[in-house]
Design brief:
The complex is a heterodimer of chains A (116) and B (233). Chain A is mainly beta and 116 residues long. Chain A is built from 2 helices and 9 strands; from the N terminus they run βαβαβββββββ. Helix content of chain A is 13%, strand content 47%. In chain A, the strands form 2 sheets. A 6-stranded antiparallel beta sheet of chain A has the order 1-7-8-9-2-3, covered by helices on one side. Chain A has a 3-stranded antiparallel beta sheet with strand order 4-5-6. The longest helix of chain A has 11 residues. Chain B has 233 residues and is of the alpha/beta class. Chain B has one domain: Rossmann fold (3-Layer(aba) Sandwich), CATH 3.40.50. A 5-stranded parallel beta sheet of chain B has the order 3-2-1-4-5, sandwiched between helices. A two-stranded antiparallel ribbon of chain B has the order 6-7. Chain B is globular. Chain B starts with 10 loop residues before the first strand and ends in a 13-residue tail after the last strand. Classes of the chains: A mainly beta (116), B alpha/beta (233). At the A-B interface, strand 8 and strand 9 of A face loops of B. Chain B: It holds the Pfam family PIG-L. Chain B: This is Bacillithiol biosynthesis deacetylase BshB2. Chain B: GO terms for molecular function: hydrolase activity, acting on carbon-nitrogen (but not peptide) bonds, in linear amides. Chain B: It comes from Bhargavaea beijingensis.
Chain lengths: 116, 233
Amino acid sequence: MEKVNPEHLQRLIDSFAGKELYIHLETTNGSYAAHFNEGFFNAGAFIRNAQIRFELGKVVGEAPHRVGLKLPYGWVYAQGITHYELDEHGRLLMAGLDGEGKLAVALQLSETPFAY
Amino acid sequence: MAVTIEKERSVLVVFPHPDDEAFGTSGTLSKYVDMGVPVTYACLTLGEMGRNLGIPPFATRETLPEIRKKELQAAADAIGINDLRMMGFRDKTVEFEDDEKMVQLISGLIDELDPSLVISFYPGYSVHPDHEATARAVVRAVRRLPEEKRPKMYLVAFSNDTEENLGMPDIEHDVTDMLDRKIKTLKAHSSQTAWMMRDLEPALAAGNGEALERFAKERYYYYRWQEDFENSF
């Protein structure tokens, strides 16, 4: 993955618009957050291989970026996106890595299902 | 506190993540291997949800499992384990699997391998939800056996309230003579440990007391059946 180039990422997002897609969306503080910092409110969410189609997708803001997808009946968005890659399988992998290189958010789009 | 490493008939190790075995158990396992004790390591997931992708990133969410699979195999090789089983679950989902299925998975391994010792986590004291789900499945599977047929359990506990509630560990193995292999095992999981090993390896080589206390001693609890976390399952 490379640091986000907003113009390039925008073109990649555009290339997925209108297609039947599988999505991976994840936010996390890590399972040890409340172990190392007692009292920390550990919240996160994960969805993988839900099927979506979006009509409009945008990357917005200075780094770290926000990415939003407008669906026929709703929305998907992720904030804190720092890195991206169109991988060898043509999947658009976007991630937000914190200052230590730890993933805090991931938003991934693919025309084929992600592995389990 | 028991400090002698007893010879076992065979040992079954059950942990959910590649590297769970490295920190607190790999020295002990190397000792069993050298004693000729058969060791089976059932690793439930490939740590697919690991957060450390590095600066600059060395992996993506999608390539991490393959990297960690290779690391797990290298770690097993470093310990000397030749029966490594990757059980195919997904990181952070173990607690959401069907609980009965998980118990039967463990029961199946116990039936097949007839271990005299099972090493896993202590339910209620192992912090990560996957650790806790694994620990519950292990205790439930052992509980279903008649008392005289139950293997011993050495359980790893490290939540912040462990000593307050369980007291001092029941077993402490000095694995100083296995530190080279333990370091090799830890380094095998480099996607998870590279940052830590940069400081730890020189500290261990220099005989740093704190580092040796943490890594040259491996500590376990027996399960407190009299304070079982549930009456039955």
